[in-house]
């Protein structure tokens, strides 16, 4: 910063103006320096090299995905600014996250386009989901028409040539399974997607899709995106165990409901009502007890919950929903917890958590024994 010119022969008001301008100039320089330092801290990798490269195969496919993925439901485009979204994606990418989950109704387009410019497209995985599009009958569901048009619309908004995985977001009882599988095979053959998967499908529906694909020499789904957390365990741990060696899973994880969360946002009253319900209040009591378990282990409750999800044999990746850099960095730290907590299913930590939750599901084989 250059010093202001001499002011000995000017009026008092002029002196004040010169001093004020010089002060503002120094403040601006200091602010720019603080921003540079903050940017360095934001982009500096939090995890060690081995933790950043902790990747697994998605089901039986050869696609390698990070154990943690970044979801964009609600937060991107609605709850946070585009600048914050870009920061979150950059931090996640620098810390080894290569899986970014979107949908045809998610508002993440500007952030993802910017991200694709910053990093090689071939170095990360983008997914999208098809079902809910517009208000017209032909703009939702899993008809061949909507699968093709919905995916084209997503690619146009994302300004991408292809997505890595396109999910059928819940099954459509109005569309024949053969039509769904043929449409997914078509978009893959056209280069619009590399793989397809299911989201919130039952084990029976997934097996039907597999049977149709094998019968007609079509492409089967490679993964199922399911809701999985402390209080939603049956599907991942009991209903789908026979599919573990055929199809991977990418559970969605969400930790807590603070005032700034999606449950407090307009249009998501149903989520707040779920938390405030009788079952929700009972679950919050157990979550408080799990906080004590996390404290004894030297980690946060969120890190414990994410690591707990990753311990499951059939889980390929856990999707995170975050709105701040602090929350993202905290959640990424779950990989450190995983590295020394869950060495086996008989771990005393797992046993303690199961006893606290009191909802461990049992397979028919376990019940017979």
Automatic annotation (TrEMBL):
GO CC terms of this entry: cytoplasm; voltage-gated potassium channel complex
NCBIfam families documented for this protein: Kv_beta (TIGR01293)
Keyword terms of this UniProt record: Cell membrane, Cytoplasm, Ion transport, Membrane, NADP, Oxidoreductase, Potassium, Potassium transport, Transport
Transmembrane segments: none
Gene3D superfamilies: NADP-dependent oxidoreductase domain
Residue ranges of domain NADP-dependent oxidoreductase in the record: 68-336
Keyword Cytoplasm: yes
Membrane topology: Peripheral membrane protein
GO molecular function: oxidoreductase activity; potassium channel regulator activity; transmembrane transporter binding; voltage-gated potassium channel activity
Name of the protein described by the UniProt record: Voltage-gated potassium channel subunit beta-1
Family classification: Belongs to the shaker potassium channel beta subunit family.
Coiled-coil annotated residue ranges, if any: none
PANTHER family attached to this UniProt entry: HYPERKINETIC, ISOFORM M (PTHR43150), VOLTAGE-GATED POTASSIUM CHANNEL SUBUNIT BETA-3 (PTHR43150:SF3)
The reaction(s) this protein catalyses: a primary alcohol + NADP(+) = an aldehyde + NADPH + H(+); a secondary alcohol + NADP(+) = a ketone + NADPH + H(+)
One GO BP: regulation of potassium ion transmembrane transport
UniProt subcellular location: Cell membrane; Cytoplasm
């Amino acid at each position: 910063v250059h010093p202001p010119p001499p002011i000995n022969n000017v009026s008092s008001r002029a002196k004040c103006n010169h001093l004020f301008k010089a002060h503002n100039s120094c403040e601006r320089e200091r602010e720019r320096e603080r921003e540079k330092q903050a940017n360095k801290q934001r982009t500096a990798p939090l995890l060690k090299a081995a933790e950043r490269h902790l990747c697994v195969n998605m089901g039986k496919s050869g696609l390698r995905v990070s154990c943690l993925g970044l979801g964009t439901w609600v937060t991107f485009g609605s709850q946070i600014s585009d600048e914050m979204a870009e920061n979150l994606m950059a931090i996640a990418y620098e810390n080894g996250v290569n899986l970014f989950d979107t949908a045809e109704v998610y508002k993440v387009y500007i952030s993802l386009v910017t991200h694709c410019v910053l990093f090689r497209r071939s170095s990360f995985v983008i997914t999208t989901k098809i079902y809910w599009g517009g208000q017209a009958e032909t703009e939702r569901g899993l008809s061949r028409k909507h699968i093709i048009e919905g995916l084209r619309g997503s690619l146009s908004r994302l300004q991408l040539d292809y997505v890595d995985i396109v999910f059928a977001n819940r099954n459509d009882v109005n569309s024949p399974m053969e039509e769904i599988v043929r449409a997914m095979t078509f978009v893959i053959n056209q280069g619009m997607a590399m793989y397809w998967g299911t989201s919130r499908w039952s084990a029976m529906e997934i097996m039907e899709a597999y049977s149709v694909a094998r019968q007609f020499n079509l492409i089967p789904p490679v993964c199922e995106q399911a809701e999985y957390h402390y209080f939603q365990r049956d599907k991942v741990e009991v209903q789908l165990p026979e599919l573990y060696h055929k199809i991977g899973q990418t559970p969605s994880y969400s930790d807590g409901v603070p005032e700034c969360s999606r449950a407090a946002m307009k249009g998501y009253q149903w989520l707040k009502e779920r938390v405030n319900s009788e079952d929700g209040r009972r679950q919050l009591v157990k979550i408080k007890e799990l906080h004590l378990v996390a404290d004894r282990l030297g980690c946060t409750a969120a890190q414990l919950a994410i690591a707990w999800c990753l311990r499951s044999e059939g889980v390929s990746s856990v999707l995170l929903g975050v709105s701040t850099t602090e929350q993202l960095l905290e959640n990424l730290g779950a990989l450190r917890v995983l590295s020394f907590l869950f060495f086996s299913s008989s771990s005393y930590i797992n046993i303690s958590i199961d006893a606290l939750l009191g909802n461990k599901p049992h397979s028919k084989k376990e019940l017979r024994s």
